[in-house]
Every structure is written in structure tokens, then in C-alpha cells.
Amino acid sequence: MSPPPTAALSLLFLLLISFSTTTSNAHNITRILAKYPQFSSFNHYLTATHLASQINRRQTITVLVLDNTAMSSLLSKHFSLYTLKNILSLHVLVDYFGSKKLHRISKGTTLSSTMFQATGAAPGTSGFVNITNLKGGKVGFGAEENEGKLDASFVKSVKEIPYNISVIQISHPLDSAEAEAPTAPPSELNLTEIMSKQGCKAFADLLKATDADETFNQNLDAGLTVFCPTDKVVKDFMPKYKNLTASKKKSLLLYHGIPVYMNMQVLKTNTGTMNTLATDGVNNFDFTVDKDDEVVMLDTTVVTAKITGIVKDEEPLIVYNINKVLLPKEIFKPVETASAPDSDEDADAPADSEPADDQTLDDDNGVQGLEGRTLVMLVLSLCIGMLLMGV
């Protein structure tokens, strides 16, 4: 058998790198737990406290999940949502502990930092969890500042993606006076007021005039990303805007929001197709996020806008400035050639009819990725076949 050609080996190496990069950080704790009804309460409060999005942004994480019975004992104490966030943060370890690792801990005990420790609100070592191997193959868990008491024990492994995310069930909530201390709520966010004070008053006024602001506000608690054209950009666009029907005006405005918090780092990492607040079962109303060096761009196929700054970044809300109004292909005619000038004038006329829906494939982060992975795997298989045959 002749040795494999250098070109094929090089291609195989590049594809392996590409595939590993594509699949990294591809977990979604909400979708993982959605398959298990016994964890529905825990899953709900991960979303309500915005911990779910923080977990999904971590590349290495372990979630100590509680079933509905264990959650009931915790909820019976009537903690505020903000205190509950600290308590659940103590149940999220910023390290990977699969079932095998838990039962093979060096010296039988170890400390792991948690997301509660990472908040900076945990004094001393109160944000650490003690993990100890006990007799009979059992594993115990307890808050480090809880005088060595192990409140919970390992029940079972729910989901493991080495060495990305491990979801393991424990028997009881971890007891921590520091995590359970009353927590003041953050200052209430007023989206349109924030935008009006930061060069986006014209866009904010349009939101209020169409009641689109209600939809934006309804998504604030769960997480919201807004792309706001500056006042001058909106002023220049107004002649086209006035020609739209009331329903299209509202869809256009909702098209400028994503129902999840995505800071700049996440946008740069998770480029691809994004659904928006305007997305429904009939029309996609999506756009593609791309980047050129450090510049993030939003491509609607009708116009490409650039992110020019950040108006507000206070999770669960982030508001970006953009240099153009985003024009959805469901309303405006797409640019037909790649060489056409990138200008709002390319989309003067509304589309005569709405295009057929595109199939949008979501990965575990809510960003399109399966199509690319399928192609990589197909080409990878062909390369391996070539190597085995000695082509």
C-alpha cells in the first residue's frame, strides 16, 4: 500500500481542527434538561434567573441538578428570585466532573469553585463546594463554609459531554447561609428610556408608536439583545418606513431584537443565522452574523449593517448601535448580485411577495451550525477513505 499523499493528510488535519472548533461549546442546559420532566422546576429557574445563558457560555461546567421534590423543599422557603439565583449558582461547578472522575478523586476529597464564587458576592471560600468520596462508593457534596457538613449525595449522571458539560443529579439542595442571604434586586431596566438617552431616541419612539416595545419588554427577563440604528440612520430611512403597512412596520422593528442575551464575545464566537423577535411559524425573519477581524456584521441579504458601539450592557439586556436599519428579505427585495453596492438604496422597493421559508437548523446554542458540520463530516469521511485505500 502506497503512503498517503501529503495533500490528503493536510486536508484531513485541517478538517479535524475545523470540526473540533465547530462543535466546541455546543451545549444547551435548557434543552438537555427538557428531556427529563423530573427536573422541570430546576430547569425553569435556571432560565428565570438567567443562569442558563451563563452556563451555556462556559466551555467547561458541571451542573448539580435537583429533581422536583428537592426543588420543592428549596422553594418552600420563599426566597426571592435574586437570592435563588445565588443558591442555584452554588450548584454549578466551574470544572468538569463526570461520574468516573467523581469516584476517582485524588485523596478522596476536593474543593471546586462555583458560579456563586465567580459572582464576587461570595465572601472567602463560601462559593466553593466540597466533594468527598464516602464509604460504599457514595459521593457527598456540601458547601465549604458549612462546617464540613455534606448535605447531598450523588444520585446519577444525567448527561456527560467530556470535557465540556456534565449534568449530575444530587439528592438535596446544598445548604449555605451566604448564598441564602437576602439579595437586593438590580435596578429596573427601562429599554426605551435607555435608548433615548444614548442616541437611539428615534428608534425608541418608533417602538412605542407601534407597541413593539411591549414585545421587547416581555423578553427582558429571559434575556434580550437589541440592535439600534442611530438617530441619523433612522431619520434617513423614514421615507421608506412611512410607505410600509402597520404590520410590516412592527415586523421591521421586531427584526432588530434577539430573544437572548448575547454579548460581543458570544456574537463573535457564534456567528451564523439568528432568529429574531419577528420570527414566527410562517416567516423566518432571520439574519446572519459574521465578522471581519474585530468588526461584527449583520447580513440580511438585503443590507449588511455593522455594529458600531454598545449602548447598554447589563445582563439580561444588551443594546448595540448599528450603522444601518436592518431590512428583512420578507419585506424588501434581496440584493441579487454579490458585487452590488452595499447600500440602503439597494432595497428601495418592498418585496412584491414574501419568499418561501428557508429551513433553519439550530444547534444547541440557537445558532445555525448543523449544515456546516454535516458537510465537514462528509468530506472527512471521504478523506479517511482515500487514506485507507492509499490514494
TrEMBL record:
Query: Quick one: a GO cellular component term?
Result: side of membrane
List, in alphabetical order, the GO biological process terms annotated in this UniProt record.
root development; shoot system development
Q: Which locations, inside or outside the cell, does it occupy?
A: Cell membrane
Please name the Gene3D superfamilies in this protein's record: FAS1 domain (2.30.180.10)
Kindly give the SUPFAM superfamilies that the UniProt entry links to this protein: FAS1 domain
Q: Which residues form the FAS1 domain?
A: 26-174, 187-326
Family per UniProt? Belongs to the fasciclin-like AGP family.
Its annotated function is as follows: May be a cell surface adhesion protein.
Q: Where is this region: Disordered?
A: 337-367
- Topology in the membrane? Lipid-anchor; GPI-anchor
UniProt keyword terms in alphabetical order: Cell membrane, Glycoprotein, GPI-anchor, Lipoprotein, Membrane, Proteoglycan, Repeat, Signal
What protein name applies here?
FASCICLIN-like arabinogalactan 2
Q: Where is the composition biased (Acidic residues)?
A: 342-365
- Pfam families in the record: Fasciclin (PF02469)
Q: Where is the signal peptide?
A: 1-26
Give the source's domain of life in one word. Eukaryota
